[in-house]
């Protein structure tokens, strides 16, 4: 096995890892969790507004 084979193997492994992360992040089972996490900064606005009054 020479360096070219190792580089090819590394490229394939990185492509598989990238595809796995994309599948994990875009999977329908995670959508609700990510939607809730995206709304977290906006949930604190009422609390901060009450502190300034």
Describe this structure in words.
- Helices cover 85% and strands 0% of the residues.
- It is built from 3 helices and no strands.
- It has helices at residues 3-26, 31-43, 45-52.
- It starts with a helix and ends with a helix.
Shape: elongated
Count helical runs. Answer: 3
Helical content, roughly?
over 70%
Number of domains: 1
Largest β sheet strand count, sense and barrel closure: none
User: Beta-sheet strand percentage?
Assistant: under 5%
Low-confidence stretches: none
Straight-line distance between termini: 70 Å
Give the radius of gyration: 21 Å
Could you give the topology of this structure?
Elements: H1 3-26, H2 31-43, H3 45-52
Offer a concise description of the structure:
With 53 residues, the protein is mostly helical.
Keywords:
53 residues
């Amino acid at each position: 096995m020479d360096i070219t084979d190792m580089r090819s193997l590394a490229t394939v492994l990185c492509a598989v890892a990238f595809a796995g992360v994309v599948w994990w992040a875009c999977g329908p089972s995670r959508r609700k969790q990510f939607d809730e996490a995206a709304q977290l900064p906006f949930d604190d606005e009422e609390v901060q507004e009450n502190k300034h009054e």
